[in-house]
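Let's practice the habit of predicting before peeking. Look at the sequence and jot down your guess about where helices and strands might fall. Then scroll down.
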Amino acid sequence: MVASQRFGRDVRERDSGYHQGPVWGWLLGHFALAAYRVNSDAAAAQAWLEPIRDHLSDAGLGTVSEIFDGAPPHHPRGAPAQAWSVACVLEAWLRLERFKQTSST
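Done guessing? Here is the structure:
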């Protein structure tokens, strides 16, 4: 099976490609925190989370989807509301806000 950057099609293709191409929403929070650890720039790291703001009105109103297409425009797929996607992105946002506040004092 070749990795597919678009999730969907029929059930067989969707199930076999679930871990080969889609982007998992919960990893974005960890990525933003890693970016902060590398660059020590909380605002730049938080910018990685900005696209989620627009997504909050896309699939499940006020929540974060389970997965997204790996290729632009990164359509939401899978479960429209995924608790760990919400939790990881929210925790990263709050931690980066704290880092911004402590670095400005």
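How did you do? The first helix runs from residue 11 to 16.
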